[in-house]
Amino acid sequence: MSDIATSEPLSFRAGDLVQWKKSIADYPASSYSLKYYLVKSSKQIVITATADGDDYLISIPAATSAAYEAGRYFYQARIELGAEVHTVKEGVIEILPNLATQSTGYEWREHAEQILENIEAVLLNKATADNLSYTVAGRSLSKYSWAELQDMRTHYQAELLKFNRKYGLTRPSRIEVQF
Length: 179
Hints:
The chain has 179 residues and is of the alpha+beta class. The protein contains 3 helices and 10 strands. The protein has helices at residues 62-65, 111-126, 146-166, and strands spanning 11-13, 18-22, 33-40, 43-48, 50-52, 55-60, 71-81, 84-96, 133-136, 139-142. Strands 1-8-7-3-4 form a 5-stranded mixed β-sheet, with no helix packed on it. The radius of gyration is 23 Å and the shape is elongated. The chain starts with 10 loop residues before the first strand and ends in a 13-residue tail after the last helix.
């Protein structure tokens, strides 16, 4: 078996064994407990670490992770001792689908990414269908103007970039080299 990681994974696959070890000097495992709370929509996963001396061992058996729904989860790592609670870390963990058991499609894109794709599709069709509103049999329908679509695209591009930067999902746009 390979060495156990010392930080939370950015992602893991449902159905795999997942392990990492945490050392939190101010809150030794001999005195405190550590729990990870992962949340996505109406789903919540609670993972309780075990003590390994004064360190914490987080271990999710393959059989347990197999039941996890794929997607991006926001997580909080919380130290607990009775009523004393301290959030010590938070971030995003992506649970990837187990392709060996996946029988239906899986939507892996961030919400802003999905919206951007739809805006791009509308912009591509806008060149051929430029009616902003029309009425048929007493019912009216309005469409976004070219400028409104451009503004929405800019907004969602910024949202996606902000999300990706916050969670380390992008490469730096500038590489600095010093000689």
